[in-house]
Queue: 3 jobs
Job 1
Amino acid sequence: MHNLAPVRSSLLSRSGHGRRALLRALIVASALAPAACLDADDGAVAGDDVADVELVEDGKGDAWAALTPRGTYRAEAAAGGEISTLTLAADRTFRRETARAGGAPRVTQGRYKFTTGGGNHYLRLLDASGALLVRYGYEQQGRELRLRVVGTGRWQALLADDGRDQPAPGSAGVYLLPGDADQVDTDGAILDLVLHPSQRFYLRARGALACASPGHLCPSASAGRAAQTEVIGRWDDLGGGARLHPIDPSTGEEGAAIRISLVRQGGRVHVAGTADGQALRGDLATAAVFTDGHEVTDDDLAGTWVVAPTDAAEAPSLWGGTLGAGDAPHRVTFDPVTSELCELPPRAGASPRCGVFQVIAHRVEAEGVIYAYRGDTLVTALKITRASANQLTLRLGLGYDGVGGRVDAAFTLRRE
C-alpha cells in the first residue's frame, strides 16, 4: 500500500491533555475520572490539593483504567533542572538523572510508589528512609511518559528507552503454534513465543511449569482446557537462540534463566529448551518478524478509525476476548508520535484499551502486522490483510479469551 495518506488530527498533538480529551469525547457517558486540567490562575492542576492514596496493583478492578510506567525513560534535550533519564525498576527502586548546565547530571536514587487522588495519578520518589523527595503528576501515552512537579502545570515529556530505534535482534519475532492449541496435550509443548526488540518476551506452554518461580503464571485448568503456563520477562539474543530471564513484574524478582534454541526452516521455527527439568518443544509458524520491511507504516494508521459491527452478540476486541454490547461506535485510534493504540469499546463508561504499537513484517503478506503490547503480560498481533487510504481489514493472530483459548477474529476499520 503506497498511497495510504495519513490524517493528522488533534489526536497527534504533543499535548497529552489534547489526546486524552479527544479520547474522552469519543466515549459516551465515560466513567473515567477527568484528566488533570490546568488552573487558569496559577498554573497549578486541579486535584493536587486532594489527599492521594497508594495505588494498589493487585489485578482487581478495571485493569484498563490506568497503566503504571516501568523501565527507562529519556529526554533528548533536557534543560538545566529537567530530568534527562529516569529508570523505574520492577523492584520499586528508581534512578533519576537531572540535567545541570555545564556539568554532569545530578544522580538521585531511592524507592518509588504510585498514588492517586483528585482524579490524577502521581509518582512519589522517596529516599532510603522513606521520606518524600518529590511528587510528580504523571500521564502515559504509548511510549511517552509526561511528568510535572505537583503544584505546577508545566509538563516534561520523556520517551521510553526500549530499543525501538535500534536494529532488532535476529531472533526477534512472533511465533505461533499452527492450528488449535487446545488439541495439544503434551506437557512442555510451546504454544506461543514472542521475542520483542525491547527485550520483553512472552512464552506460553502446555502444563504447569515452575508455577512458584518468579515470572511464571499458571492459570487454573478449566472445563475443556488443559493446564498451561505463561512466562514473562526479559531476553538476550544468542544468535540461533535466546536466553530467557523470567521476572515477576510486581517485585522485580528474577527466576531461573531458560536457554532455548531456534532453528529456522522456511516459515517455521523449531524451538527447544528446558524449564525446571521439563523439556520445552515447539514447531511454530513465524507469524511476524521485526527485521524485514513492510508497506504500511505507523504514520499511515494515524487518526481515528471506526470498527464495522459484526453479527456477534458482543463486539470482539483487538486485544482478544470481547468488549461487551453497546450502542456507541467501536473505535480505534493510532498515534504514531507516541506509538499509542487505543481501542474504545462500544459500552458507555468503558475505559479505553491502550498500549504501545508498531507495524512489523509478516512473512508473506507485504502490508505487515500491527503488533501491540501493554505492560509485561498483554500482547496482540493483527495481520493487515487489506489496506487502502480509508479502510483496513485485520485478522487477529494472537489473542486470548481470558482463560488461555486462542481467539480468531476479523475486523474491518474505516477511517473517521
Job 2
Amino acid sequence: MHPRRLAVPVLMIGAALVVGCKGEPVAATTPNALTSERRADLAMQLVDAAGTSDGAAGAGLAAAVIMSGAQPTKITASRTGFKSVARVDDPSIAASVGGTTVEGAVYNVIAFQVVERAYGDTTMGIVAWNVTSDNNPTSFVVAYEFGEGTGRFDDANGGPTAYGFVYNAPSSSWTVTSGSASLLGRTVGDACEGFAYPGLTATCNLATFTGALTISASTPMDTPNNTATGSPTFAIASGVLNGITIDVTSSTSATFSRR
C-alpha cells in the first residue's frame, strides 16, 4: 500500500514554519546545532525545493523535523570520485555521494520517527542536506519507511516499503527507485525545542537511532518545469544518527500511514 497524501496544502506548511520562527533566534547550544532562525530558513528552502511534487508531503514533514531543534549529525566528504563521507566525530559512520560533490563537502543529517498509536502506525525517516558557505543548500534528500527495520525503494515483491526523494535547487527533483532505508530507535532524551505541523497534535523528544540509507538509483519526477537529469545516488553506512521521535496524540489531517 502507498502512503496517503497529506491533506494540508504545502503553502500552509510554509506559513506554519514562518509563524513558528517569529521573535529572536534561539542561540545554538552546541557547535553543530542550528539557531531557530537558521532552522526556519532551511525548512523553507526544503519546502520551496519540493514545490508541489509527489514528494511535497515528505518534504513538509522533514521541514518540520528540521525546525524541531534536533542537533544534526555531520558527515564530510573525505575523497574525490565516488565520495566516501565520514562523520567528523565518529569515523565508524560513512556515506557516499555520487556526482560532482567536491572533497570536503559537508552534509547535515537528522533522523526521525513518527508514532501514531491510534492507528498502530510508525514512520521512520531521514532528512539530509549539504552545508554551503552562503547557507543556501543545493541538495536535499528525504527518505522514509513504515516501521522499524529495513524498507526497499524498488517495486519488487509487491511494491516499495520505503519512499525517497532528491531535490537539487532550484528546480530539479527525483524519485528514488532503487536502494533501501533502515532505522532502529536507540535512545529517547529530553523534549525537543518544538514540533509543529498543521493538523497534528504531538509530543516531541530528542532521540538517537541506528540508521543506514542507500540510494542506488533515482528517476526524474514527472512534474512541470522539472530540470532533473541523470540518477543521483547517496548512501549513509550504518551508524548512530541524531534525531527526534514524534508521538502523535491527535490528527485532523492525513499523515504517512497506509490506512
Job 3
Amino acid sequence: MSTRRREDFKYNASHNVIEKNTFEGDFIWNTVELAGGGTIKNKVVYNTVKGKAVNNLDIDKGASYNEISYNIIEGAGLSPRYKNDKNVRCSPIMVQGMASKKYKGVGNVVTHNRIENVSNPSSDNTKYFFSSGIGIACADNTLIENNIMINLYQDGNYRRGKDYGYGIIVHDDCFDVKILNNQISNVYTAIGTNLNRDDKVNLQVENNVLNQVKVISKLSPHNSSIDIRKKNTVQEILK
C-alpha cells in the first residue's frame, strides 16, 4: 500500500500534550482525536474519560509517532444513536490510518492505560462483533503494551445475548504490531485479527495475562501458527 509522505504536509500539529483532564458525558464521535498525516509526536496522557463514544481516544487518518498513555477510561461504549449504524465499531482506544485515502499511521504507542466496564446498547448490528478495548487498523509499527482491560462487552446486548467483543483486535493493512505485557479479563475473545486483505502483519503477541475469557484468540490463517498459550499467561477460560 503506497502512502502519502509525511514531509508532503505543509502544516504540522506536533509536540502538543493533552494531560490530566477529566472528560465526562456522551461524545458524538471521539472524546479526543489526533488526526491527519501532519499530526505527529503528540501525547494524550494521565486523563480520565467517563462516557460513551465510538472511540474515546483516537489516533486517525495517518497521524504518527503519537502516544496514548496512563489514561483511565470507564463506562465507555457506543451511544444509543449509533447502535444500528453499520459504519461504526466501538473501541475506546483506536489507532488507525485511512485506507481509502492511502494514509497510514506509523510508530504510535498505546501504553499503561486502563479500560473498564465497556458496554453497547441492545442491537443486532453485525459491527458489534468486532468491538474491542483497543483496535488497530491501517497502521504500521504500533506498540500496545502494559494496558489493563477489564469487563468488556459483557452486556448480552448483541443479537439477544450472543457473545461478542475483543480485548485487542488488529484489522486490515497493518504491519509490525507488538502486543506485549497487557492484562485482559472478562471479555469474549482476548486477542484477534480481522483481516480481509492483508496476511503479512508481522504480529508479536507475548507476555500478556489473559483471564476469564471465553476464547483466547481468533487469528487469520497466516497468523494461526502463533502459539498464544506458549508465550502468554492464560489463567482461566470461561464456558
